[in-house]
Amino acid sequence: MNTRQLEYFISVAEYLSFTKAAEKFYISQTAVTQQIKSLEDHLQVTLFTRSKRQVKLTPAGNLFLTEARNIIKNIDDAVYKTQQVANGFLGTLSIGVMTGYEKNDLPLYLKDFSCTYPNISIDIRKDGMTELLDLVKHNLMDLAFVINPEDHPLKDFDYKEIESYSLIVLLPFNHPFCNESTIDLIELQHENFIFVKETGDGYGQKSMIQNRYREAGFVPNIVQRCNDINTIISMVASNMGIALLPSFCNSSALMERNISVVPISENKKRIEVVAIWNKNNTNAALEKFISTI
C-alpha cells in the first residue's frame, strides 16, 4: 500500500467512477483498476462493488475512505510542517540572556519576532555569561545575549553587535556621592564593592572587569559577590557596599529600593552587548531571529 494507491482510491470513491478518477490523474482506467485491485489484495477486503452501470463503496470501503483521507491529510501536514521547520517558519528557538539584560532590549526583539513568526516557540533562559557561552558553544542553546569579552577572540562563535553601554554605580541614598551627576571611577577607590559572582573565566570576563579598575588606578575592595541582581540591589540598599554595573541594568525599580544611580564618567571603552551563536548551528529559525534584531 502506498500513498498513490490511497489517492486513486479516494478519487474513485468521490467520483464513484474509475473513468473520471483516471482522467484526474491523466492515466488509463486500466491502471487505476489495477492499483485499486492491488490495494484490495493488500487489505484483504473488497472496497467497491462494481457493475456495468454503477460503482459503490462497500461498508468496509466507506470506513476506509475516512481513514485514507486522514492518512493523506496527516502526510500533507507532516510535509508542510517539515518544510516550515526547514525554512525557519516553524520550530523552537532557545535564547539565553545574561542577568540584568532581560528587561532591556530583549522584550522588544521577542515581540517583533513573535509577530513575524508566530509559529516559532521561544525558550528563554537567564544565566551567567560563562554558562550561556558554554551552552551556545555546544549547540545546547541557539543564541545568547552576552557582554563581548575584551581582548578575548570569540573564535568559536559568530556574533552581532547589539548596543554599547556605559557604566553606572549603585549607591545607597545616604551616600555622599548620591547626588552627583557623574563620578570618576577613581573616586570610588576606598569604597566596599559588591561584585557579580564569577562562575568561571573561560571567556575573559574576569580580566575585562579587572581592566576597568586597573585603568582607573586601583584594586577594588570586594566584600560580597552575588549573581542575582535583585540581591545585589538589596545589599546596596542595606549599606553593605556599592555596585558597578552596565547601564542596561538601570530601571525605575531601583528608585523604589532606596538606590541612587550615578553614571561613571565616560571613557573610551564601553560595555558592548552582542548576540552570539555557534557557527555550526543549523536551526533555520536562528537566521530569522538574527535578521529581526
How are the secondary structure elements laid out?
Layout: H1 3-15, H2 18-25, H3 29-43, E1 48-50, E2 55-57, H4 59-86, E3 91-98, H5 106-116, E4 120-127, H6 129-137, E5 143-147, E6 157-165, E7 167-172, E8 192-196, H7 205-216, E9 221-226, H8 229-237, E10 243-246, E11 259-263, E12 271-278, H9 284-292
Parallel strand pairs: 3-4, 3-5, 8-9
Antiparallel strand pairs: 1-2, 5-12, 6-12, 7-10, 7-11
If you had to describe this structure to a student in words, what would you say it looks like?
The chain is an alpha/beta fold and 293 residues long. It is built from nine helices and twelve strands. It has helices at 3-15, 18-25, 29-43, 59-86, 106-116, 129-137, 205-216, 229-237, 284-292; strands at 48-50, 55-57, 91-98, 120-127, 143-147, 157-165, 167-172, 192-196, 221-226, 243-246, 259-263, 271-278. Strands 4-3-5-12-6 form a five-stranded mixed sheet, sandwiched between helices. Strands 10-7-11 form a three-stranded antiparallel sheet. A two-stranded antiparallel ribbon has the order 1-2. Strand 3 (91-98), helix 5 (106-116) and strand 4 (120-127) form a beta-alpha-beta unit. It is rod-shaped. The model has no long low-confidence stretch (mean pLDDT 86).
Q: What overall form do the CA principal axes indicate?
A: rod-shaped
- Radius of gyration, in Å, reads 32 Å
Strand order of the largest sheet: 4-3-5-12-6
Strand content: 15-25%
Described by strand count, sense and barrel closure, the largest sheet is: 5 strands, mixed
* Element string (H = helix, E = strand): HHHEEHEHEHEEEEHEHEEEH
Number of helices: 9
| Mean pLDDT across every amino acid position | 86
Tell how many strands the DSSP assignment holds: 12
The helix content, as a percent range, equals 25-40%
Q: Which regions are unreliable across 5 or more consecutive residues at pLDDT < 50?
A: none
Structural category? alpha/beta
What distance separates the N and C termini?
A: 48 Å
